[in-house]
Amino acid sequence: MTTTAARTRARSSWRVIDIIIASVLGVATGLIFWVWNSIGFAWTTAMDALTPGFGGLALGIWLLGGVIGGLVIRKPGAAIFVEVLAAAVSALLGNQWGIETLYHGIAQGIGAELVFAAFAYRRFTLPVAMLAGAGASVGNFLVSLFTSANIAKSLAFNSIYLTCGVISGVILAGLLGHWLVKALAGTGALDRFAAGRKRV
User: Domain for residue 67, yes or no?
Assistant: First the structure.
């Protein structure tokens, strides 16, 4: 019993290397967010003009941090840490949302984190990554009800936005995030992590 508890603690405890790599991932993802801010915003505006709510299809890139953080670090808090740090970098570099970016980062990170927690931080397959992307999207949807005043919009808009956001989260955050981690592992950069030693 004591041995099992010790192993569980060791598996969930963060090492210095975990903090360093999570920080690097957060900053790198934040730079991706910053580049995507203009592209994604233009895409959202154009898609919403076509059909209100379709803008959610652009959401996935902003959800990458939580998925990648969870897949690489594989410990409690990793998805939230990387997503929030990425959001902070995006906000500090300057974007059109300011402090609201952090609110979204927290909600999106929690959404992804809950999925990894549901699998007890033991499964990091493609389906789990895609579910984490969907979870991050749901987190974004909930916070957007208030930060973007979506709660005042129609049920049709919110239904379409949630559906499109989940699809985007599954593909652009889950599928793409899983592929990026595999590609990074292939370079040997993740050899000190389980993600670099076994198939994710």
Answer: yes
Token output for 189: 């950069």
- High-pLDDT (> 70) share of the chain, %: 92
**Residues 99-138 pLDDT 10s:** 999 999 999 999 999 999 999 999 999 999 999 999 999 9
Is the separation of the CB atoms in 111 and 138 below 8 Å?
yes
DSSP 189: T
Both structure tokens of 126:
């493609």
Query: Using one digit for the tens of pLDDT, what is the confidence trace for 166-186?
Result: 999 999 999 999 999 999 888
> Over the range 144-162, which residues count as b (16 or more CB within 10 Å of their CB) and which as e?
beebbebeeeeeebbebbb
For residue 117, the one-letter residue type is: A
Is 4 part of a structural domain of the chain? no
Q: What is the chain's Cα-based Rg?
A: 17
Tokens for 75, please give them: 């410990």
Q: Is the pTM of this model over 0.85?
A: yes
Domain span including residue 37 = 15-197
Distance, in Å, from the CA atom of 87 to the CA atom of 81, rounded to the nearest integer, reads 10
- Number of structural domains (the chain) is 1
